[in-house]
Amino acid sequence: MPDTLGRLIFEFGARVRLFKNRTVSQSETIGNLTERDLAILEYVYDKGEASFAQIAQHLHMADIPRASTSAISQTITALYADKGLVEKRLNPQDQRQPIITLTEKGRQTVEIMRKVRLELLTIVKASMDLSETEAAIVEQAFARGIQYFDKLLAHETVPHSHN
User: Fold this and answer.
1) One domain, residues 49 and 76
2) 150 in the same domain as 117
3) pTM, rounded to two decimals
4) Separation between Cα atoms, residue 71 and residue 129, nearest integer Å
5) Mean pLDDT on 127-152
6) For tag attachment on the chain, is the N or C end more exposed, with fewer CB atoms within 10 Å?
7) Rounded CA separation 135/95 (Å)
8) Contacts for 121 with CB less than 8 Å, ≥ 6 apart
């Protein structure tokens, strides 16, 4: 007997990703940013400021693909020089590690990204048309799934959505 629930989860996830990619690509503000760009911007937004080392550690913990030291440096330089989303300033404790902060444009970009994410989550929830009882069951199932994967990931810090 085929795993109908597994297939449905996979197909639902694929459609949500397609919808998300289409929605994000239509946004002039965030459509040309990579997953790494967005992760850096959101991290600095939440922290207020961050050193290169803190950003690198965060990206490693978040398991962002290809987050080598060189790639992170190139990304921050592009966010600074090409896109005007971050600022660099001297770190008095370690002058080799600049402090990264967001520009106003960078802050607005994160706020737009979070708005798009919230809209997407609202659409996903509405698409399921769940009763209160069904919603409670789905919440419990997702909570158990998160706990399970946290254990599989050896209790490493796993990034959670900021809504």
Assistant:
1) yes
2) no
3) 0.77
4) 42
5) 92
6) N
7) 51
8) 161, 163
